[in-house]
């Protein structure tokens, strides 16, 4: 009590409990449903223990930890580790105790919050979120919904130019191996539909005017991007005389149903030049691909719940407002550009879970964990099939799927790799420098930009801290793309790799926030200070 070494743990964190006890801390156990208050005559018999705690008695055969817990039952804890701040009893939160959460972090730990915060980033620092965060819109906000509609149309026009260049010349361009996304294609509420890849068939429609219309739209858009419209009051490219409903329907047939295009040599040259100039203005031109796939997400959900992949504008808007997911409030959807040109490993999509800790918000102090892990999907990557097993890397999603027969046998059975295994793979590709020179610096920069964009929204407590898990995709050029940041990342291991890494990051977090206070030279494990204002 005098040393202020009383702690409370809420949630499944045996590593935290064990490490604190080893440091001489005593746990104050919290009452739970069905637990009886202490009325006993034998201090080594504890009828108030939950099932989980009874199982822990194997680690406490003499009952000394439970006895000590009983003796401090009326004391306030000095250290609290909990699943969520909201789960902590307010009476336990005192000015001088340490808690592993901050309040109001939803400004960057929800999809909706991160979308809004990063929109404000250019006003806070000289950084462009489009260089590390796939463009994102909140569909419940009218201005953002209109901006998304314009973005979808412009992306369709650019995609058409890319499709047209697949095969150049005076003969029709035939799209190859692209999905036939009929109405309702994608995934939703556990029901899977399988779009069919199709190629142009003899006699399929030709749209000679489409390329010319797409060229005109993209030229106008380039002028806007170059600010050539300031004095001429050029209308938005999406408000020209083009019939967008007709244009999009014909684009769908070309991109998804194998319809043909006519492209002259002059148009071929114009397409090449125009896309080259657009690439100088649009950081996401390459990663966005040519099929105009967007991913629709509930703004405040996690673990892949409610996520839907779509390629048709009218269906995105209809679904966002029909609110078919019961847990999603009307208008709380965000829509984000899907990274179509991504790096795969053995033909399989993966993402990276990267940990970091914030130990202060004023001044902002950020520690980057130098170990991380990769999460694989259960089926080979394909834009022809948009079911969850191929496109959502979350462990909570993939655990429901068995590895498909057509999966490369080199993909790990438990669908997890360590970053060291990934580095070995990159070295085999002759890209060993991609990890230290592109991926790690890119992840650090994206995390810092996200934190700075939301800094004014967070309610911080001096002496507290929080461990976060950021999720990244990797582009074909090895550039990391931030998808989301999770408060309270799971510490429940799903593989031998995560069993080791999750234990390590918990131990090192305690070294960082506790041991370092008493001894500034003590080890902080794999943590690295990457920013302090």
From TrEMBL:
A biological process term (GO) from this entry: cilium movement
Q: Listed GO molecular functions?
A: ATP binding; protein-glycine ligase activity, initiating
Top-level taxonomic group: Eukaryota
Would the keyword Nucleotide-binding be found if you checked this record's keyword annotation?
yes
**Substrates-to-products reaction catalysed:** L-glutamyl-[protein] + glycine + ATP = glycyl-L-glutamyl-[protein] + ADP + phosphate + H(+)
Assigned GO CC terms = axoneme; microtubule cytoskeleton
Key words of the record: ATP-binding, Cell projection, Cilium, Cytoplasm, Cytoskeleton, Flagellum, Ligase, Nucleotide-binding
Where is the protein localized?
Cytoplasm, Cytoskeleton, Flagellum axoneme
Q: Does the keyword ATP-binding apply?
A: yes
A Pfam family in this protein? TTL
Record-linked PANTHER family: TUBULIN MONOGLYCYLASE TTLL3
* Record-given protein name: TTLL3 monoglycylase
**Natural source organism:** Pycnonotus jocosus (Red-whiskered bulbul)
* Taxonomic placement: Eukaryota, Metazoa, Chordata, Craniata, Vertebrata
